[in-house]
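Module 6 notes. Inverse folding takes a fixed backbone as the condition and produces residue identities as the prediction. Think of it as a translation problem where the source language is geometry and the target language is the twenty amino acids. Below is one complete input and output pair. Work through it position by position during the lab.
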């Protein structure tokens, strides 16, 4: 998408924000996402959209992508940073094998508990280890313990944007060689490609530099190969190679 001629594209929410038109986004949802969306994910999505912070939800086409990725990679041990009501968490948990595990970190248990009855009804709560609190200290503790190095197949990072580079420094130790870290929102509403003086909403302006820096760091990190996908608000997959 080019932002050269239409700055009005900048202040949009992250739901399908990177596609050229709302109609095209709607077409993808109606043709390829909604027809096979599990009922539990639909229920959780609809519940979440009604909340004041509903816009934080990982959009349905991205949840579908995460599910596909987890299955393609045969993920068994996963981690998620930024759970909210559990939409991406549920998509991942559904895709994991019966004995798969996901460590889910969020500072706010209340939102998670809104989604929890749906997760329980879906029969995947046993795969989830939810821990309330800031993610960085939990990760630091895991690194200190020493037994988690190189153990995770997949990590999805969708919280605490200004710490993404700090997460990366640590998560690269926890993900196994061949495993993947996915950083969400790396195109940040398209703002990363806008001129510095372009008009944009406050939240876009606030984190634009964070993502510009992160994208540069990831692109030259020799320990990973990356692929930045314009799904949702942009997700960068980092496959650990050394
Ligand atoms: C964008 S939402 C996550 C959306 C979620 N992945 C989904 O599928 O709907 C970001 C979440 O990160 C959480 N959060 C913010 N700072 C955090 C931190 N330092 N550690 C862990 N979670 C944090 C917030 O409470 C919020 O629920």
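Target side of the pair, the amino acids:
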């Amino acid at each position: 998408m080019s932002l050269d001629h239409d700055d009005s594209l900048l202040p949009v929410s992250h739901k399908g924000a990177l596609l050229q038109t709302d109609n095209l986004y709607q077409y993808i949802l109606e043709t390829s996402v909604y027809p096979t969306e599990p009922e539990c994910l639909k229920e959780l999505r609809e519940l979440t959209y009604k909340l004041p912070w509903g816009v934080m939800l990982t959009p349905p086409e991205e949840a579908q992508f995460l599910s596909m990725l987890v299955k393609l990679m045969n993920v068994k041990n996963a981690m998620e940073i930024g759970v909210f009501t559990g939409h991406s968490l549920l998509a991942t948990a559904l895709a994991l094998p019966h004995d798969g595990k996901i460590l889910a970190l969020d500072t706010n248990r209340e939102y998670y508990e809104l989604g929890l009855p749906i997760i329980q009804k879906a029969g995947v709560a046993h795969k989830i280890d939810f821990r309330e609190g800031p993610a960085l200290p939990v990760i630091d503790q895991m690194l200190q313990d020493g037994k988690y190095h190189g153990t995770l197949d997949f990590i999805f990072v969708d919280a605490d944007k200004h710490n993404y580079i700090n997460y990366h420094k640590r998560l690269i130790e926890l993900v196994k060689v061949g495993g993947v870290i996915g950083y969400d929102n790396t195109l940040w509403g398209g703002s990363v490609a806008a001129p510095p003086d372009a008009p944009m909403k406050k939240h876009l302006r606030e984190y634009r530099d964070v993502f510009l820096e992160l994208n540069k760091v990831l692109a030259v990190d020799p320990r990973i190969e990356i692929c930045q996908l314009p799904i949702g608000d942009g997700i960068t997959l980092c496959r650990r190679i050394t």
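Reference fact for the lab report: The chain has eight helices and seven strands.
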